[in-house]
Amino acid sequence: MHSLNLFEHNASTPLAQFGFNHPFFAVHTATVVYTWVVLLFLLVFAVIGRISLHYPNSIPGFTYRKFIRIFTNMVHQALDVFEYRYYTFIATLFMFILFCNCLIIIPGLEEPTKDLNTTFALALIAFFYAQREGIHAHGIKEYIKEYFKPFFIMFPLEILSKVATIISLSFRLFGNISGGAIITTLWHNAIKGSLIKHLIGSLFGINLVLMLFFGIFEGFIQAFVFSVLSLTYITMAVQHQEGDLSL
Amino acid sequence: MKMAYYASISLSIVLPILGVGIGQGIINRSALAAIARQPSAHKVISRLMIIALSLNETAVLLSLLLGILLFKAQAAISTVSTLAAYGALAAIALPGFLVGIAAAFPTKWLLSATARQPFLSAQATTLLLITQTFLQTPLVFGFVMGMLIWGQLSDTSTITEGLRLLSAGLTIGIGSIGPTVGLSLFAIQACSALGINKTSYNQVRVFALLSQALIEAQIIITLVASLFMLTTTTSTHGLPFLAAAFTMGVSTLGTGISSGRTAAQACEQIIQKPEVYTVLSRLSLGTQTLIETCVIYGLATALFIVYYCTT
């Protein structure tokens, strides 16, 4: 039942010879390797997409343009104007998380999002990007003033609610994906043993159902939720101070 | 002590069965009512009904798995492992019971909406899947906690550790009650969208994903507190864990329901007027973020209790 322990990974400490023995410097080997696999898939996806755009009337070309239009519409609907940099950010987040979550459909590979470090890093990126955009839109003075509205007692409250966004973003992805991974692992452990047991267990097709539900469906939903929530946080940071809720 | 242990196993299966039984009854009754209203749509309605029934059964399947695992671990029965088993029971059975009932009401509204708009069955299926997936998440989180508690079952030796595992289960069990009710309240409103104003479907779909994710964030915060309790090792007292469990669990009780009601009201207005979606969704999401701050206070208190009283 080693696989059930969510907080223990195969860790190596490459900096140990320099005196950095703290767990902070440990590297989760499996997570890093699977992330490289994801990056490889993303590269292939991007290259195919770029080539297929030269053939506008082909099926892949149409699919890619349709796919891109979903995100441009999403940014346009949230911000009322189209900003190219938000579109690239949201689409990148979505693609990366989707490929991470769907990696389980390839036998022998595991999702990097099963590791809390990956999801926490993604949440930090989304959070700090939103803050940076808020500062960029209003200036540093207005941004700091926002923490003391309507009066200065609100300062710890605002800080807490900012921290809550990081926690909820990272743990939502982590909890859902690792829950699916635990259930899949349990099923694999249950049918392990003799050949006949394995054969009967595999022929039931529950493997396939688990994979389709947790890998593709749940993975898609979580990737979409993560990117849409990041976009919402960016929107709130950029447009919050204007205060006009009119159309 | 053996009897108490076996009682925990049976209760962890019986309570979800009770909830799912009631829920499936509601789904079947509403499907029959919808077919009676629109007999020509019986194929669409029965297909939706079967999807809803099979999704609703997740509660029983997961609790059955956990029950079997608890039964297999019976070699280590003692007072301590019984306490831990009740923790696993609270983690899976309370959400299971509640989700079984709560997941049925949105389906009821969705089926009656489908009876009015039989040609929009693809959209109805999407709405059903979106809402039901989010309604099952308390269950998945509870199951994860139950599995982690079960993993530590054989290592526990002192009463303090037993109480720690019990309160880790209670945290997620009590903490998921409020958000589950909130999710159900919101999903009822979102599922009735097709029947009231079918042009609002695109807006309602995105809004449902966002709002449910924000309501669900409260369960995630209780999961964080629960995981924190599970990973605490140095402890001298057991009772502070129970106090922290009730602090965290009860703090999501009101906020979950109020967050769900807020989102449901906003969803109702979006259904009436899809063109003001941007303003309404922004306002609703901002309000939900403010409500979530209260849960963060609960989390801070619980973590403080655990950290301060055990070191």
Question: Key terms for this structure?
Answer:
heterodimer; A: 247 residues; mainly alpha; two-stranded antiparallel sheet; 70% helix; globular; disordered C terminus; B: 311 residues; 12 helices; 86% helix; 0% strand; flat
Could you describe the 3D structure shown?
The complex is a heterodimer of chains A (247) and B (311). Chain A is mainly α and 247 residues long. Chain A is 70% helix and 2% strand. Chain A has 8 helices and 2 strands. Chain A has helices at residues 29-52, 59-79, 84-102, 116-138, 140-145, 155-191, 195-203, 206-239, and strands spanning 11-12, 27-28. A two-stranded antiparallel sheet of chain A has the order 1-2. The radius of gyration of chain A is 22 Å and the shape is globular. Chain B has 311 residues and is mainly alpha-helical. Chain B has 12 helices and no strands. Classes of the chains: A mainly alpha (247), B mainly alpha (311). Chain A binds chain B through residues 1, 4-7, 77-78, 80, 157, 160-161, 163-165, 167-168, 171-172, 175-176, 178-180, 182-183, 186, 217-218, 221, 224-225, 228-229, 232, 235-236, 239, 245-247, and chain B through 62, 65, 129-130, 133, 137, 140-141, 143-144, 147-148, 151, 206, 209-210, 213-214, 216-217, 220-221, 223-224, 227, 231, 276-279, 282-283, 285-286, 289-290, 292-293, 295-297, 300.
